[in-house]
Amino acid sequence: MAEWRGRDVISILDFTRDDLETLFEEADRMKRALREGRVRRVLEGKIVALAFFEPSTRTRLSFETAAKRLGAETIGFTSEEAISVAKGENLADTIRMLDGYADAIVLRHRFEGAALFAAEIAEHPVINGGDGRQHHPTQAMLDLYTIREAHGGVDGLTIGVLGDLRYGRAATSFILALTLYKPRRVYLISPPALEPRREVLMDVEERGLPAAKASLEDVIEELDVLYVTRIQKERFPDPEEYERVRGAYRVTPSTLRGAKRSLIILHPLPRVDEIDPRVDSTPHAWYFRQARNGVPIRMALLSLVLGA
Amino acid sequence: MAEWRGRDVISILDFTRDDLETLFEEADRMKRALREGRVRRVLEGKIVALAFFEPSTRTRLSFETAAKRLGAETIGFTSEEAISVAKGENLADTIRMLDGYADAIVLRHRFEGAALFAAEIAEHPVINGGDGRQHHPTQAMLDLYTIREAHGGVDGLTIGVLGDLRYGRAATSFILALTLYKPRRVYLISPPALEPRREVLMDVEERGLPAAKASLEDVIEELDVLYVTRIQKERFPDPEEYERVRGAYRVTPSTLRGAKRSLIILHPLPRVDEIDPRVDSTPHAWYFRQARNGVPIRMALLSLVLGA
Amino acid sequence: MAEWRGRDVISILDFTRDDLETLFEEADRMKRALREGRVRRVLEGKIVALAFFEPSTRTRLSFETAAKRLGAETIGFTSEEAISVAKGENLADTIRMLDGYADAIVLRHRFEGAALFAAEIAEHPVINGGDGRQHHPTQAMLDLYTIREAHGGVDGLTIGVLGDLRYGRAATSFILALTLYKPRRVYLISPPALEPRREVLMDVEERGLPAAKASLEDVIEELDVLYVTRIQKERFPDPEEYERVRGAYRVTPSTLRGAKRSLIILHPLPRVDEIDPRVDSTPHAWYFRQARNGVPIRMALLSLVLGA
Fold first, then answer.
1. Which of A265, A228, A16 is nearest to A150 (CA)?
2. Residues 6+ apart with CB under 8 A from C176
3. What integer pLDDT is reported at residue B239 of this predicted model?
4. With an 8 Å Cβ cutoff, is B37 touching chain A?
C-alpha cells in the first residue's frame, strides 16, 4: 500500500484496491463524524486551491464543503473567472502561482493530461477534479464507495453503464475503476456513436474486465448496478438521429419492470431527462445518496493527502 | 411563540410579533458583541449554502459576513455562476445537492415561490433571500429592526412607502410586515402604474392595515418613517412618462422641508438617484445604518435557525 | 515611524523606509512561520472585504490566502460580479456597504484615485489593490521585499525597469518606490510611446532618483535587478510598429549573455511572452519567488493594519 500523504490524484488507475479500501474506511469515519456532529478541524490552517477552468458545481462545491468541514480554507476561481485568469497566461505559470499560495490544488480542465502536467510542476499535491474526456478519479471513488455501501463491494456484481461512454469523463473513469475489481459482468450500453473509445476498450480488455456491449432491455433483469450518464444532443450531427435514439437510453419506471429489488441506479449528476423523476421515489434511486457521498469521500481524500 | 430552531424563513407573514421580538433581542446582543469585538464562534463547523440565482450584493455579502462572523463557512454560487449551474438541471436537483452539503440554504430566485418549493425538498432550513416580486423576509426583518431602533417600535407610527410598490419585492415585503403591527397610518406613494398588486392590497385590507394612497407632498409633514425604493425606467413603456413622473418620487432636501425632526428615511439599497446625496448628511438619513443592520439581524437569524 | 494600526494603504509614497522595514521584518516572521507550519490565527474573527472591480488573480488570491492563513475570513466580489454590483450604484455607496460589513477593504479599480476616495469614505482601513495607472503599493512592497531578500537592500544597486512604463501600474509603483531608497542608477527601458508619464518623471526628478532612459543591450552588464513588465499590443495604434518593437523588450537567454551572475529578474506576472520560459531555469529567475512573497508580505500588512 502506497503512502497517501503528499500523493497526487490523477487517474483512478494510480490506486490499488488496498489504497481505495483505506480511503473508504476513512470516508466511513468522516460520515459517522458528520452525522454525529463531531468532525474535527484537522486541516485548520491549510489552504486548498480550487482551480476550475471548466464549469462544475457538484465537484467544486463538494470539495469546498469537504475542505471547510475539516477547518481548511479554499481559494480559487470558477470557469467564469478563469477566462480572465487564462488571458494569455500559460497554465504552468498559473499552477506555479497556486502552488505558491496553497497546500493542495484541485484542478478541472478540458484538456486531457492537464492534471498530470500540473502535478509535474507543483510541489504540493494536485487532485484531478476532471480533465479531458477520461479522468475524473474522485468521481470514480465516490461511485465505488456508494456501490460498496449498497452491496458491500464490487466483486461479483453485474453492472450496466449507460449513456455517453465516449465523451463523458465520469462514465469512462467509472469503467476504468471497475478494472480494479472483479465484477461478474459489465454491460456497456450506448448508441453506436457513443461507444467507448478504442484506447479505453483496450485498457478494459488488457485488464481482463468482463465487458460487453448490450441493450438495456436485454440485461435489465441481471443488473445489480445501473450507472446512467447524460447523452448530449450536441453529440449527434443529425437531430433526428438523437430523437430516435434517446428513448432507448432513458430510465423510467417501465424500464425498471423486471429489475432486481436490490438494483441501484447511480448517476454522476446533473441529469437532464435521462432519469424520469418518478424513479426518484423508488428504492433503486441511489443517485442523490451518491452525490451526498461526495463530501465524506473528499474529506477522507483531503485528510489523507494532506496528512492530517 | 414557535420554535426557531430548524425553521424555514419563507415569508415575513410566517412570523408573529413575538417571534420577531425574539429575533430583535438576539440581534441587539449580536450588535453589542460586534461593537465590543467579542463575538463567539457559535456556528463553527456549520456550512451555509448561498444559492443566488439572481444578482444581489448586499443580501449575499451580509449573509456571508453574518455566517463568517459566527465561525460558520459558506459555499455557493452567484448569479453569473448560476447560469452554468442551472444549465438544464431542475431546481429540485440543485436544492437536493446543496441540502446534502450544507446545514442551511439561503436562496435568491426570480420565480415566485422558489423558496417555498426549496423548503419542501430540503431537510435543512431554507432562508428566502428574495424570490419573485413579493417576498424578501430578511430585508423586512432588518427594516423593522431599524425602525424599532429609531422609534422604539412600529405601533402608532405614520409610515410612507414610496416608489415601485408593484414589482419591488423589498417594498412589498415591508408593507406585508407592517400588517403584523399597529401603525397609525400607512401611505402608499407610487405612480399609478406601480401601485401594489391586487393580491397585496387584499392582504393589507384583510389584515386591517390602515393604508391609503397618497402623494408625498401631502403627507410628508405627518411621517415618522419614509421607506423609499427605486423606480426603474424599464417599467415605463413610454420613456417620456417616466421622465414626467420621476421628479415626484425623488427625495431631496426641499422635499423634506416641513418634515418632522424625527423622520427617518429608509431604503433597501442600492439606490440610483431616488435619494439626493445631499440628504445623506441630514439626521433623516437612516439607510446606511439600516444596511449595516443587515449583519446583526442575519447573525441573529442564522444563530436561531441553526440552534446555536 | 507612523503607526501601522488602522492605516490606509493608498500609495507606496505614503510610507517611509522605516515603515517598510517594519513591514519587511514582520514578513520575515510570517515567512518563517509559514515554513515551519506554525502560523498563529491572530486575525480570527476579522473580515476582509475584497472589492475587485477589475480582474486580478494574483493580487486577489494572495490577499485571500494571506487573510485566511491568519484566521480571518474574506467576502467580496470579482470583476465579473462587479458588473452587477456597479449597476447604477455609485462607488461611495458600495464602499459604505463594505465598510459596514468588514474590518478592512482591499480595492482594485480602474479609476485613478478610487482607493483614496474610498479611504475618505470608509471608517475601516482601505488597502489599494491597484487603481488607475499609477498605484499598486502592495505590489511595490513585495518587489522591494524580494530585492532585499536577494541583495540585502536596494541602496547602491543598479536597476533596470523594462516594458510599459506608461500604462502599467506595477512598473510605475515600482519606480516611485525606488525614490524612497538610494539605488546607484535606475534605467528606464521602454519604447518611446511607453515612456513614463510626465508627472511620474517629475516625481522621480524631484525626489532625486538617478534615473535615465536606456536600451537593454547597453546596460544589461551593469544591472543588479531587471524589472520586466508586459507590453500590450493594444497600446500600439499600428500593429507593425508593435511587431518591430517587441523583440527589443523580450528577455531571452541571449539577452542575458554578459549579465552579472547576481542579476535578478523580477516580473509582477502574469507574463505573456516577454520572458522566454528558458530563462525560468536560470539563477536570474526570481519572479516566481517574488510572486510567492505576495503572501507573507500581505500577511504582514494585514496583521499590522488590523493591529493583531
1. A265
2. C11, C12, C13, C134, C140, C200, C203, C204
3. 84
4. no
Which residue has cell 408593484? B166
Query: Would residue A86 count as lying in a domain?
Result: yes
All chains having 3 or more CB pairs closer than 8 angstroms to chain B = A, C
C246 touches A at CB < 8 Å: no
Q: Which three cell numbers stand for residue C235?
A: 497600446
pLDDT surpasses 60 at B237: yes
Domain limits for position A259: 137-292
For residue A250, give the amino acid letter.
Answer: R
Cis peptide bond upstream of C270, omega within 30: yes
In a domain, B253, yes or no: yes
Nine-digit cell string for B217: 407632498
Could you identify the residue written with the cell 417501465? A254
Tell me: cis bond preceding A270? Omega within 30 of 0 counts: yes
Reduced to 3 states (helix: H, G, I; strand: E, B; else coil), residue B97 is helix
Residues C143 and C288 in one domain: yes
Q: Are A98 and C62 in contact (CB under 8 A)?
A: no
Are both C176 and C232 inside the same structural domain? yes
Question: What's the order of all strands across the beta sheet hosting C185-189?
Answer: C211-213, C185-189, C158-162, C225-228, C264-266
Q: How far apart are CA A175 and CA A165, in angstroms?
A: 9
Touching subunits of A (3+ CB pairs, under 8 Å) are B, C
Task: Give domain status of residue B115, yes or no.
Answer: yes
Cell numbers describing residue A299 = 474529506
Q: Which residues of C touch A97 (CB under 8 A)?
A: 57-58, 61, 269, 291
Cell of B257: 422641508
Residues A143 and A284 in one domain: yes
Mean predicted confidence (pLDDT) in A118-131: 98
> Considering only CA atoms, which of A241, A257, A265, A133 is closest in space to residue A192?
A241
Indicate whether C182 pLDDT > 90.
yes
d(CA B29, CA A292): 36
Residue type, C96: R
pLDDT at C153 > cutoff 80: yes
B44 contacts in chain A (CB < 8 Å):
41
- Inform me whether the C-beta atom of residue B232 falls under 8 Å from chain C C-beta atoms: no
Confidence of residue C248 (pLDDT cuts 50, 70, 90): confident
Closest CA to A138 of A178, A163, A174: A174
CATH code: domain of residue B278: 3.40.50.1370
A interface test, pick of B81, B90, B103, B120 with most A CB neighbours within 10 Å: B81
If you compute the radius of gyration of chain B from its CA atoms, what whole number of angstroms results?
Answer: 19
What is the helix (H) or strand (E) element at residue B109, kind and residue range? strand B104-109
Q: Cα angle at C93 between C91 and C94, to 5 degrees? A: 65
| A28 vs B289: CA distance, rounded Å | 48
Q: Quick one: C287 and C297 in the same domain?
A: no
Q: What is the pLDDT of residues A222-280, one digit of tens each?
A: 999 999 999 888 778 888 888 888 888 999 999 999 999 999 999 999 998 899 999 99
Considering only CA atoms, which of B8, B80, B2, B50 is closest in space to residue B305? B8
Number of domains in chain B: 2
Q: Cell 440610483 maps to which residue? A: B272
Asked whether the beta carbons of C206 and C172 are under 8 A apart, the reply is: no
CB contact set of C178 (below 8 Å; sequence gap of 6+): C154, C159, C186, C209
Q: Residue A292, Cα to own-chain centre: how many angstroms?
A: 13
Put simply, the answer to whether A97 touches C69 (Cβ < 8 Å) is: no
Go through B118-156 and write b for each residue having 16 or more CB atoms within 10 A of its CB, e for each that does not. bbebbebbbbbbbbbbbbbbbbbbbbbbbbbbbbebbee
Closest CA to C174 of C126, C131, C216, C136: C136
A-facing residues of C in 251-280 (CB < 8 A) are: 269-272, 277
Residue in the block written with cell 451518491: A290
Domain check: are A246 and A152 in the same one? Answer: yes
| Chain C CB within 8 Å of residue A222 CB | no
